[in-house]
Structure of Myb-like domain-containing protein:
Amino acid sequence: MRSRGLSRTEILSALPGKSLSALDYQLFRTGKRFPRPRGGAASSWSEAELSLVQGMLDEGMKVPQIAIVLRNKLPREIHAAVHHGKLHKERTMYKSDVWSAEEDADLERMLNDRVPDENVLAALPDKTENRSSHRRYPSRTKVARPRLWSDEELATVEQMLRDAKTVPEIAAALPGKTISQIRTRITYGREKFRQRYRKIQHFSKEEDLRLRELKESGAPWSEILTAIPSRNYRSLTDRWNYLEDKESQPHFERHKQEWSAPEDNLLLYLWANQQLSRAIIAGVLQRTKNAISQRIEVLQSPDLTLSRWKGFITHRVSRDQAIEISNFIRTELAKPGIIKLDDILAEFDGNIKATVPPRHSQSYTPEEDDLILRMRMEGRAWKDIADEAIPGRTKQGLYQRWMRLKQRESTITAAAESVR
């Protein structure tokens, strides 16, 4: 039947037990198609076909039923025409988006009378269901944002406030502003608004001198605010606290100065050997904690771990000298007043110059090897050996040398036994 060019209606009449969907699926699976008109792979829509489909859609017919009537159109072509093609444009083109006053009145009257939706659409033939629904539930009306305050309006508000005018009187003088807007503007204040968004400006030397003179004379903050109108209360109080801290702490500006070699040595000693906190070290060196942390990161070599770094510092000061320096620093810290950093650096630098130079890169002598073996047999700790017996050597270096000596001794013993 398909080869003879019969339509689907004729095929369905010959096959009473089959449905239209089953026929479409069978034709799709076998790759058979209905004959198309000449002129290309896809047929074009004529005005008569569009009108016919429009009428069938208005009658409530579905796309498969319309496809039965239109023998030269496939269901997917009708779907495309309805949803994405010319038919969709033709269906919505004549629907008007503009509502007249009479249509609004009729719609409001029918809604108040609880008229069904079908009757509403019948009474408004040129309106679709979506347009009626959107008109029935309109979106919120957009409210225009209030314009910004101008300098003239702000000056007017300030002047009227100085003249003891009320908010309604100010609103009457400013026709473009409401009472709530004026009350909000007065609550936040012009100065607070400008201080929030203005560019931050540093205090000048003249302002610092003026602030210092007023505070030393005992003037209250209200007079200071009047004398320095470009600053608010918070900025003035913060600046005064900063100036007081700068005077009470001599090391307040020392973090900007360069580090000297004695300061580096003292910093490494206090941090590595004495395990002091950054706050105490900052008090000794008269610098900020942030400067101490940054300098420690600079002095720490990336190829040295913390333990090796501590050992590198340990060999520079003997045990007796470390005790002497620690006692001197504690004595200086206990003294009232300002810490004498120059005395601490001189004492520490002098002790360092008197120490034995580092020998961790030099070869071990036979006397040192004998001393290492003898003291280990006595049960002495590596720290005691490095500080007292062999100054200039690190604990790690002494331990590695002892392991090599033990390995050499075991090798010699094994060779002697093999000869026997």
